[in-house]
Records
---
Amino acid sequence: MDPTAPVGAAGSDRSRRRLRSSLRQAAAGRLAVLPLLLFVAVAFGVPALAMAYGAFTTYAPGKPSSYTGGNLTTSLSGGYLTALLGSIKVSATAAGIATVAGLLLAQAVVTSRFEALRHAVLSASGVLANFGGVPLAFAFVATLGNNGVLTTRLHLTGAGWDLYSFWGLVLVYCYFLIPLMVLSVIPALDGLRRQWREAAQNNGANSVQYWRYVALPVLTPSLLGGFVLLFGSAFAAYATAAAMVGSSIPLITLQIAEALNGNVSADASNIALAMSLDMVVISVLVMALYLPLQRRSARWLV
Amino acid sequence: MASALEDPTVASGNGRARKRTDRSRPRLGRTAILLISGLYFVGPLAGSFMFTVDDPVKGFTLSAYSQIFSVSGLWPSLQLSLLLAVATIALVFLLLIPTVIAVRLGSPRLRSVVEFVCMLPLVVPSIALTAGINILLRWGSDNLASTPFWDTLLAVQNASFPVVLLLAYVVMALPLAFRTLDAGMRALDVRTLLEAAQNNGANRTRAIFFVVLPNLRGAMLNAGMLTLALVLGEFTVSSILGYTPFAVWIVNGNVAGDGTVTTAVSLVSMVLTWAVLLILSVTGGRRSAAAKPA
């Protein structure tokens, strides 16, 4: 049977039927996506728009709201600005350390011969990166806080240790950032071909040269992408710091929570919305960096 | 390259020496890295365990753990968290599974739209989302008092089942759940599965329920577990909106002075979550390893 032969009525009818059924399927596909889009529009879109609108208006019950740039100006000055910069500094430092440490740990796990180690590390990473938060803060307070087990036994306070400080926070953040890095870099490490290392060695490269000229350049987009992801996750973190320190360290998330909860001033909640908008702007910038990097790394590591 | 060609003996000698160092040095480095990471990651857990069993007066005691089930307020808060988790998982599946199937069968354009929508919550930190919800609720309570929407507003904030938290949790779970389910779906040859089922006389709905979904079980289990972990650990939205699920209860209890008990509870919850995910990863790994040679 020659498939090109039947150009008669039957053939065109069949192709028309196929076209119609594929059109129906496409319509059904779009219909299946509709509930999700509606849900996101209501549960995410409305609060997000309210947040953005509130950042540019004043609000008091019974009075008409008016447009103002004052909230944003306030959110970028004084103690609020210090908190924003503090968040950026802590997040960038912790993300930088965790990127390197996560790469080393992931490489150690990937090259290990023990399958069980890989499972244990991957599942533990899943828990620590996603569940973290409050239990994590408690574990660190109980161990390295003012009355913590290690602090009292090793007399760390006398040696200048303070968990509720910049470096204390960085140490705690690394506890969930390193697992996140391990999770996000392991696929890239798995994608490094053994042949590339062999080819480098056959050409006389030593281990350092292989990493310097072959592996790291291939991994760079994934590493930068990972760094950006870690930064975003540390930047948005609230539970850990809140459970640990209340608000003694200047962090933007703690400031927002305080402005929303406390009765600091009448328009505090509009300033909280303006600070939220600042956070979104920074997150968008960060994502705008992340997505192209991820696409680039996907080109090499199929 | 050129020198290696000129003098093969030197090159091979170097090669042998290099091989030896390659074999021993990375293993040493690897052991050191694993040891240091082990210390760093086990340390705080071991520290908090010691904190819970070491009473300054009585010495070693397990009373913090025996009190877990009698301490007041734990069960209601855990119940609220579990209820919210089940509802969140159900709603996430209801929204995402049809979407993931449609995306797999549909056009690439549909795929990028859905992916964009599901990744959007990553750009808005949960505290910013909370701020938005907070202002909406405040606006509602100031302006809706005399309208029929008032009852809806109250129902959404019902303390025994806060719908507003459910909505926020589903939004927060979307990015992770979509990626997990989508990855599971990509591993399937859905078109062939559907065609085979339809050739055997099943209609499309039946084929999706009895052929596609069972094949997606692994990914669904993973997405469900990750969502469960997210909801059980969630603190930001619930604490600011004034509800007391599990994580908020732990913090409140600790502030009120049950330090050792709540630390014990948080340690137990973390270890239990890890154990469940470990079991999943081992069984999941075995399944994929078994599937590979076929």
---
Amino acid sequence: MAVNSVLPPSTGRRQVSWGTPLTYALALAIAAVSIAPVVYVVIGGFRTTPQIVADPAGLPDPFVWDNYARVLTQSNFWQQAFNSAVIALGTTLAVVVLGMAAAFVLARYTFRGREGLYTFFTLGLLFPAGAAILPLYLMLRDLNLINSYYAVILPQVAFSLPLTIVILRPFLSAIPRELEDAAAIDGASRLGFLWRIAMPLSRPALVTVGVLAFVASWNSFLLPLLVLSDVGLHTLPLGVQNFSSQYTTDTAGVLAFTSLAMLPALLFFTLAEKQIVGGLQGAVKG
Amino acid sequence: MTSANQIRMPAGGASASPAGHHKAGRDSARRADTRRKWYEIIGLTTPAVVIYVMFVLVPMGFAVYYSLFRWRGVGPPTEFVGLRNYTLAFQDPIFLDALRNNAIIVFGSLLIQGPIALGVALLLNRRFRGRAVFRLLVFVPYVLAEVTVGIMWKLLLTGDGTVDALLRSLGMGGFVQAWLADLDVVIWTLLAVLTWKYVGFAIILLLAGLSNVPDELIEAAAIDGASWWQIQRHVTIPLLGPTIRIWMFLSMIGSLQIFDMIWVTSVPAVRSLGASATMATYMVDNGFFARLWGYGNAVAVILFAISFVAALLFQRFLLRRDIQGAITGRAK
């Protein structure tokens, strides 16, 4: 919030009116296309497979909880959710800490080679993560990291750093010089300024990069697919794929598992949506 | 940094009375501060640099090296074959299909998602009650994992799935197809699903861009009697230029390395015939699962080279003007 005084003010509070019927009709149509398949999957989880086969587009009749109960009690859902959480939280924490430290230096220190270092990081935006996956696998194998959380966390951190630094740097640069001088007069060192002033002021941007890193990690598939062959370490995306290929005839069960796997990301994003859009404004400013 | 240092300077030299000592004290304080500054620079950037070099740049280097060998991944690579793996790839019709599919996804995504996203973003940028809810709903597909979305659409599209049932009930039974199994149809089905999933990302970026358009401009245009559409056409959309180009850039790079969705939706047989293969699935199929490590790494290098050249051309011709403030912008 405090950053509002630093950055251009966001659109001011204005009176909000009802839109035209046409606006609502269009918005409703768009929303329906976006979420109808998701709603179908969630509701489908409350039906039985014979019901679905008989009438694919119908409503649950009667309502069945059994699929959800089965997934939560008999599959590895909880284990996979736990693995996903450990990996996503580890990735997010490391990305935010390392990204903030590097972005702070690139924004607030003047030194030879600064722009070179920045370009060096931004080059990473051009490297498709997928292209490096085979040699990455071989390297992790040589380091004896296959089948460990690190095998997923470390590469994910590395590939998230460029975007993180690109988003954080303009934010940190926008903190006025006077604030830094004032902090120095009050006896704060540069690191004190980082910790006590720059960090709190850039909280919106930190949340943005944190959420982006978390969601990317939570949803990632290719890297875990290659480096986590141990079923006990599988993450939710791997779990969804296993479950669906293992129980091909249990359509209702697959629908239930798929909806449960969607839930955490959806909740998380709903809570943080405003923040993400706000944080991106700095990055897409022309 | 200098102003902050100067402020702290008097404390260092305050006790020294003779002028010479005073100057020496100030110099040594400055030197100490410069040294401390370098410790801080190195200390704060090293962890990020090390992890980035080790897990992004080094693997890319190894990909280039391994791609020159015929190698099954056991022991060090010994059988040097030069560029043979590359010529083999470009002679394999399935790899060429994968290239074509990637091209379809890149251009299809840009041409379909762009106009849709622009329309939706302009609509959702109007002020009306409930707007926030609609914005949230539009982003839903983007947040979900590609794997989850893939499995979901697979259930909706395979066999006599819900989509087919829906078409029949609407009297459009003639459109029913083997969406994911027909070799001529599957890539277009996947393009439609990818559009459904990723158009929300374009909308997020455009809405962020729209919120940077100054209200005063729009108000001025409205006072001059411009209609809503004229304002969009002549004020808002031109100002979105940088955002649109950044989105095109990210969409292009993403489309080139698309993997998850293709992997979980298309039948392996369909994929291995090239109907839905992409460079990434081809690379993993050959390199990882068939254990042709040298060959797989050559495909990885081709994928990287195409992305890199595309990115450079894009930057050179389209992003150049935006670069200052945007993606790789210098701090102002």
